Amino acid sequence: MATDYDGVLAPFDADPMQATPVPGAVDTLRSLAALPGVHVAVVSGRDLVTLRTLTEIGDDEPIVLIGSHGAESSSAAVREAMEAAAVTPEDEVTLAELRSDIEALVKEHHSEAHIELKSAAVVVHVRGLPREVGDAAIADARRVALDHPGVKVLKGKSVLELSVSHADKGSAVTALGRHVDAVARVYLGDDVTDEDAFTRMRRPDDLTVKVGTGSTAARYRVADEPAAAALLTRLQELCSAAHVSG
Ligand SMILES: O=P(O)(O)OC[C@H]1O[C@H](O[C@H]2O[C@H](CO)[C@@H](O)[C@H](O)[C@H]2O)[C@H](O)[C@@H](O)[C@@H]1O
User: Fold this and answer.
1) Mean pLDDT to the nearest integer, 218-224
2) How far is the CA of 172 from the centre of ligand 1 (A)?
3) At 242, is the pLDDT very low, low, confident or very high (cuts 50, 70, 90)?
């Protein structure tokens, strides 16, 4: 059972570090993870350190954290499966150049935008800015990416992410499913990067859920983060009842 973080477990906030989970949602994941035969993961574009900080899920807990769109994980099995997509020393050099160019761009031309530095990416944030101001910052950031061959450009919600990671959420989450011999897989996501997971989870017993509006390959949809939290609670109740009845 895997869920995305921003826009699913946690409502959006203009300050990325203030985007905290819907009250009770992480405890629901803990209850699910405590059930025999249920494996739980939080999958995010956040880097692993930040994901751990925001979820407050500890290293000693049985919930797998997958960060940087699959490039980082608390699970050795996922790390091994994603080894070919790991960030190389050459990628680190590209990332340092990218950071420097984006910092210069924002400082000189788009001081209203915010930069988030991640272990495998630089993100330009424009949430809350007037549309034309945000669009101009995103367009210029795209141009910076063109100067750095091999950089992946991901357009998210009020963000442009420039990444040196070669991973994707779909590969990471299906690797975890294989590792635990999952017979049915659940994935909740809200953004374009979650579509990689939705398209890879097409078995009859898989349950894929898009949170919010927009086209999707997911089979089902809920309206927003509180509805996603309510769905997780219902799944926990059903799994718990199935366990009790044997
Ligand atoms: O894969 P996710 O867990 O959905 O993470 C995707 C990106 O989420 C974050 O940005 C989004 O949430 C911010 C906090 O609410 C918001 O300010 C921003 O507008 C959203 O796009 C995060 O900051 C990125 O690094 C993640 O890649």
Assistant:
1) 98
2) 19
3) confident
Counting Cα atoms < 13 Å in the Cβ hemisphere of 236 gives 19
How far apart are alpha carbons 134 and 125 in whole angstroms? 8
Environment class of 59 (CB within 10 Å of its CB; exposed 0-12, middle 13-18, buried 19+)? exposed
What was the ipTM of the complex prediction?
0.98
Nearest CA to ligand 1 atom 14: 16
Q: How would residue 246 be classed by pLDDT, with cut points 50, 70 and 90?
A: low
* Cα(6) to centroid(ligand 1), Å: 5
Q: How many CA atoms lie within 13 A of 166 on its CB side?
A: 13
245 pLDDT exceeds 80? no
**Residue 3 CB less than 6 A away from ligand 1:** no
* Minimum-distance ligand 1 atom for the alpha carbon of 14: 17
d(CA 2, CA 90): 31
